[in-house]
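S., here's the first fold you wanted:
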Amino acid sequence: MTYAEVVRRIARLMYVRHEFRWADPSLKRLTGDFIGSIEEPFTPIEGQASLLQNYPDLYNPFTTTEKILAYYREVHSTHQCTGYTAFPSPMLAARPEACPIFISPHDESFKFPFKKDSLWQSKDLQAVVG
């Protein structure tokens, strides 16, 4: 997946569009931090400020992410490296305060997200995609 595809997928899976809210407040922060982590290597001007300045900018993540993705053209053609594909950043996904997200590959880090993922979506059926 390209970086742009991942950002769009994050918004689609973690934001409850028909209720105009994030499935969990921690997911807005996680999304903002991931966008910040991809802005840095793709910023054409060294020292340029991030386009995403505040988490409230993600009140409507679809509009905000499309604006950011339009600015960074390379994110549409640059694929994530193999070690980065389980989640945008394993460090972001492993935050203890964050709602569980994607399951990591079957390696030594598998136990943490697997146990953390204890049917959290069953607590909020409106957040289940599809």
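And the second, which I think is the more interesting of the pair:
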Amino acid sequence: MVKLACVIWILPRESEQKYTDFLQKRKLYSIYSIPCNGTAGRSLLDMLGLSRTEKSLLWTVAPVDMGRRLMYLSETEMGIALPGSGIALVVPLDSVGGKTSLEMLTKGQTLDMERKTQMETTAANEFSLIVAVAQNGHTDEVMDAARSAGAAGGTVIHAKGTAGELAEKFLGVSLAAEKDMIIIVAKREERNAIMSAIMEKAGARTEARAILFSLPVDSVAGLHVSADREGQA
């Protein structure tokens, strides 16, 4: 079976159309865009007189080997390795919910789903994607904790929770519907320290009430530049 992955780009908002064209040129038509924000520190933004940096998160589904090819092209053709250009990563999928979902996610692609493919285990898990879901307005607490453990930056997606009443009924806590989802790309050896710092300083027993999980990253593009620049991701 062909192994599929979610291929993700986190880009300056103005680069969204350029990357959409780049993907459609390669017959990837099921492309999803989510507006989000960078996480440059509040003190730095205040000093520069800037607001939160506007980003777009683009994602699509493709075979893992194509995802790796897209990482290479993102650097060589699209220039994502240049400062301020964003990052890209490949996150393997465990499963897809049925044939219809598969067809919608891979619209326009020619896949031989019975074909066996040899997937090498390169530096497949050199990086991890850390996801923290916190109460709205507590992004700074999460990112301050993450940076204290070595994280370079993150991306904020504003989301909405749907289990507030259940949480209040069964857990005895009242949770606001509005959420901040903070995603951080980190080296695997730094993952545990970053997650521990977030749990200690912004976890479930704090006002931020952040919950955490991480996902393995197959490959990345642009991260070697962004890791040295606060708030790049």
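Why I say that: The longest strand covers residues 54-63. Strands lie at 4-12, 32-38, 54-63, 87-92, 127-135, 155-160, 178-187, 211-217, 219-221.

Talk tomorrow,
H.
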